Structures are given as C-alpha cells and as structure tokens.
Amino acid sequence: MLLASTADKIVALTSLLRRARATGDVTGFFARRLVLCGLLPHFRAFQQAAHPRVPASMSAHLDAVLARLEQVTAAIPAASAR
Which terminus of the chain has a lower count of CB atoms within 10 Å, N or C? Predict the structure, then answer.
C-alpha cells in the first residue's frame, strides 16, 4: 500500500509540474490551485515518514518533485494560499 501511494504521488505531482510548464506560467498555474498548494506540507510529511520504508530511489524521486513544487509555489504570496 505504501509503495502504491508513493508511486501515485510521484506520477500525479510530476504530471502537474509538466502541465504547469506547458502553460508557460508555472506560478500562475499553481496560484489557481491553492488547495493543492495547501497540501504540499502533507505530501512532504508523507515523504519523510515513508522514506525509511520505501526504496531509496522512490523516496528521492518524491523528494525531488516536492522540492520543485515547493520552489515554484514559494513565489505565491502566503495570503493567497489561505
């Protein structure tokens, strides 16, 4: 179950980043998805908790995609993310 959940997050979040890049306005793409932005800390907590229990490559991949999401959403004003 943990492997499937980790893989699902990797695929879904990577797809979101790909779709965001395709729009040409990555920050704007995520600014219109504030609920998702609010879930990023949950996804990060999941990654940290799952880290010792899933293959290192999966954990590293999820970590990388979350780091990229955290980077691009950091430009969204905190007041907008409420």
Answer: N
